[in-house]
Predict the 3D structure of the following.
Amino acid sequence: MRHSLTAFWNYLSPSLGAVVVGVGLLWISTDGGTALTDESARRVRIEQQTPLLPAFVLEDMRGDTVVIGADGGHTQSPTVVEFIYTSCPTICQSAGAPYARLRDRLDTDGLGGNVRLLSVSFDPNSDDAPALQNYARLHKADGDIWNVARIDSNDFAAVKSAFGLRIIADEWGGYQHNVAMLIIDPVGRLVKAFDNEDVEGVYDYLESKHYAPS
Amino acid sequence: MIISKASTMRHRELIIAVVLFMGLVVFGQSLEVSPVTHMLVLLPGLAISGALLGIGLRVDRIQIDEANANGVILIAVGFIFFWMLPRYIDASLVTVTFGILKYLSIPIFVGVLMALGWGRANPYLRGFLKANALSMLGVLSFLYTHAPVRICNSYLVSAQENLGVAFLWTAIFLALVWSYPLFFPKASRSVLRQ
């Protein structure tokens, strides 16, 4: 009996060793099984590193200046940012609906005075002020809590790298890009990324950070 | 090591391995344009070049028993899993480090290790792995054709759907190839295996 057990163990141990090494490698390389895709890896990275963003000067749909990121040490309202391009036929349009729900929720609960929502176009050459206004009108973003803006075309590479945006051209002259609701804290750190449908998650997070008036 | 004399090597396999590998390096970027050729031509091609390298270098002369052969092919399976993670497919397209890692780790840790262990591993393990490969391709095919989300940031949704369809055809093709010996009596099977 003892002998056969030893033989069994001797036969099995190389396979067990290989499986342990393999599972360990996969465990480490997927952040503990949580990040199988590039997008989920970006979200884990944001949460772990909470990078301080450089100040980016945006132009909103009224032509006014909006600053996101570390603005010379000034504290700002915590900001939820979602990157879009307004001629996007698919996900940027459907992303508008959860954003509207979030705005309504913030508005009724009084958080809206403290938190700002931004839809930011990464395509400033096509998205001029009328295009931004059009998108805002379509989704009833009044510029009060929820504002629509565009990046400076010179900042494209810097914005892409700071936020981990991956943008590729699609078949119809538009783009496909990774989408998330990104939260910037009052000192300008990128602290968390949520799925673009996860209104509850964003709201609970904002509330837990006491951004709501008590 | 057993590998000592050049005359003991299989030159034909070595030459094909090197030519194939160089070809994949040269045409790699064109193959990476579509996930279909990336996943079904480039990556298997790298594994095959590594396997031919192993055969050419006569890894069959390295003495390992069945138990160790099982372990060896399971390590190779671990690397196959790694290179099926969308995260690292993206990383290999964006970062130089993972790009180089792809071209080196697949021939060595998938190709050479399979050449070393596959023929001597437990037949039931081999059958288990084949069956899992088929079902995995089927599951991924369903996922890629029906997933509402983009899995790779480097590829369009339409390309992801193409890959799903291609995975299904691959599963059907492999199922036919692997079940082919079933249609022959035992006596002729050893011939088929050559």
Summary: Chain B has a mean pLDDT of 92. Residues 91 and 98 of chain B are 6 Å apart (CA to CA).
